[in-house]
Amino acid sequence: MITGKNYIGNSLSNLGSKTFSTYNPILSIENEWTFFEASDSEVNTAIALAKEAYETYRNISRDKKADFLNQIANEIEALGDELIKVYCKETGLPEGRAKGERGRTMGQLRSFAMLVKEGSWVQAIIDTPLPNRIPIPKPDLRKMMSPLGPVAVFGASNFPLAYSTAGGDTASALASGCPVIVKSHPMHAGTGELVASAIINAAEKIGMPNGVFSNLNSSGIEVGEKLVQHPNIKAVGFTGSIKGGRALFNMAALREEPIPVFAEMGSVNPVIFLPKALELKTKEWAKMYAGSITLGAGQFCTNPGLLFGIKSKELTTFIEELAQEILKVESFCMLNPAIKNNYSANKSYIQEQNGVSIVAKEDERKDNFANQVVATVSGNEFITNKSLHREVFGPFSMVVQCENIAELEKAIASLEGQLTGTIISEENEIQNYSGAVDALQEKVGRLIFNSVPTGVEVCPAMQHGGPYPASTDSRFGAVGTNAINRWVRPISYQSWPNDLLPLELMDENPLQIHRIVNGISSKNNIER
Ligand code: NAP
Are residues 208 and 309 in the same domain? Predict the structure, then answer.
């Protein structure tokens, strides 16, 4: 049941007087629930509880942490249809998408449970001593990853389950041993509260310390700001706009003790269409890209917003085909009127720029429905006007028509950092474009060959992050089990007595994890 209250640790609380509602974008009406924004004292209590919980939680056994994560997945499943209905009412997204995202969220939680249970993720490295080394003896040194402390998580509007309350950031932080305080997204606060109730149920059933998780409502930026500025918050996970991520990153850097902000932000996901591929499969690529641009009303961070090609008969035909195909796709409801208004404003801004022409534009059908647009611009105009490089969050894509290979390379080199970059190529055609491929590789976290950027597989080899502004730290990513590395720091033990070492570093290797011992990967005991 949705109460509209905050979870301050295990307790429901509504001490604040500011309230807000969520919105049903399909029906264009407010939803029936009233949410209470977290007050200053509730924010402070949640942080105090998280700090206290950290002392216990960081030392809880790996089996118990894994049980907790698995139980969260079970409790989310047990929410059943209510969760799906609330999700759809707060986003306008279809039931199939809601169920798919729920499955992904539970899968993420379970994969972190497996990672924690296996244990080798702590990256144990042991260098045994050389007491007789000349000129000075070498001491015994043992290193492993250790949690940072309470983490604040900001979810995005477009992933109410997989990148929100119990999404990848929360799952990875809890797996690492860090308590989590979620700043709930105001557009899906009801979905957030239901998922928070599942986490709290799991915490109580498995016997986790009170404060290991809190969920704070807010309809503005104040609650988030307080979290990021509080000295007992030790790291931040953010998924959302470049504007929001950068603001929080700057705020964290200005603290007396700066903390890391892992912000996964916007991207235009450039795609390079090589001439032969266009010549041989014009229709196929046009159809596939019309589908990718409009998927989920274009509300994906991996949406292909910029398509590059070299001026030719084939590129012209491709643009015509894409224009036809995209207008065949039924338009979709956007998540919220605010997102729709931003889409309209950003689209208009780009359309007004010099040299931009519109080749396909669907008429506005209903309130909150996104009309898809394909625009074109010359390579030269694109290179000189940086405002054409920005993300238009919605079903919008622009074809950049370059004069030749040199201009294509220059256009790619002029881009900011991106989540993905794609090459569409026929057979060995790509070999003649190594300059453009090299330029693209410098800009992205994931290179794709002959496919679309939308659709992010959740597995350890996935990199979902990229050079700024795609992420604030391109060395890490938000998807897959490696995301755990964002919430930990290495700690070395020098000449530490064996029986006082963490289990992961003891001579006997009681957890039987993989360790690097004197440079060699091993599960063996260490003889003293
Ligand atoms: P958003 O407007 O940035 O909001 C995200 C969250 O951050 C909200 O809870 C928001 O709170 C908060 N926030 C924003 N600015 C803030 C500030 N200055 N101070 C404190 N809190 C702040 O983003 P969104 O509209 O939800 O999501 C759409 C964007 O996310 C798109 O640009 C998309 O590309 C990106 N995205 C990226 C990824 C990725 O993995 N890279 C995945 C999904 C989406 P309020 O709403 O209360 O202000």
Answer: no
- CATH no. for residue 238? 3.40.605.10
> What is the DSSP code string of 392-454?
--SSEEEEEEESSHHHHHHHHHT---EEEEEEE--GGGGGGGHHHHHHHHHHEEEEEESS-S-
* Ligand 1 pocket by Cβ (under 6 Å): 154, 156-159, 163, 183, 185-186, 218-221, 224-225, 239-241, 244, 247-248, 264-266, 301, 391, 393, 419, 464, 478
| CATH code for position 341 | 3.40.309.10
Kindly name the residue from 42, 88, 193, 301 that is annotated as catalytic: 301
What is the DSSP code (8-state) at residue 212? S
Domain range for residue 46? 6-18+29-121+143-265+477-485
Number of domains present in the structure of the chain:
2
State pLDDT tens for residues 134-191. Answer: 999 999 999 999 999 999 999 999 999 999 999 999 999 999 999 999 999 999 999 9
Q: Enter the pTM of the model.
A: 0.96
| 245 & 333 share domain | no
pLDDT tens by residue, 345-367: 999 999 999 999 999 887 777 78
Asked, for residue 278, whether it belongs to a domain, the answer is yes
